[in-house]
Amino acid sequence: MNLSSALIATGYQPYYTRAESILIQAKNNNETIQNNLAIIRYLIDSEQHYEKSIQVLQNILVENPDYFPAKYNLAKIRSEQNGHDDPQSIELKHGKMLII
């Protein structure tokens, strides 16, 4: 998990495929793995994976509404797709607001 997070954080496109491979091979399929997999797939191809990444992050929040990484990433992806670089808030599906 730490390696996939580090590869994502580099912002270096060629590392994204390696991070995806690490996440797919993970033995436990927990919310952290799902969160990182949604993000890495979005980073690889935002147009192709936008809807699926949103769906995965929303599913995480259904199971664990207080999981902050999924809240943040959901808001970040939506703000990028809506052309907002730095939104003050994004309304999340389950009615909470996330200030970023």
Would you mind describing this structure in some detail?
The chain has 100 residues and is mainly α. It has helices at residues 2-10, 13-24, 31-44, 46-63, 68-81; strands spanning 89-91, 97-99. It has one domain: Alpha Horseshoe (Serine Threonine Protein Phosphatase 5, Tetratricopeptide repeat), CATH 1.25.40. The protein is 67% helix and 6% strand. Strand 1 and strand 2 form a beta hairpin. The chain starts with a helix and ends with a strand.
Show unreliable segments. Answer: 86-100
The tally of helices reads: 5
Shape: globular
Helix content: 55-70%
Helix/strand order, N-terminal first: HHHHHEE
Q: Give the strand tally.
A: 2
- Average predicted local confidence, pLDDT: 79
Q: How is the main sheet built?
A: 2 strands, antiparallel
Short description:
The chain is mainly alpha-helical.
Topology overview:
Elements: H1 2-10, H2 13-24, H3 31-44, H4 46-63, H5 68-81, E1 89-91, E2 97-99
Helix pairs in contact: 1-2, 2-3, 3-4, 3-5, 4-5
Task: Write a concise keyword list for the protein shown above.
100 residues; mainly alpha; Serine Threonine Protein Phosphatase 5, Tetratricopeptide repeat; 5 helices
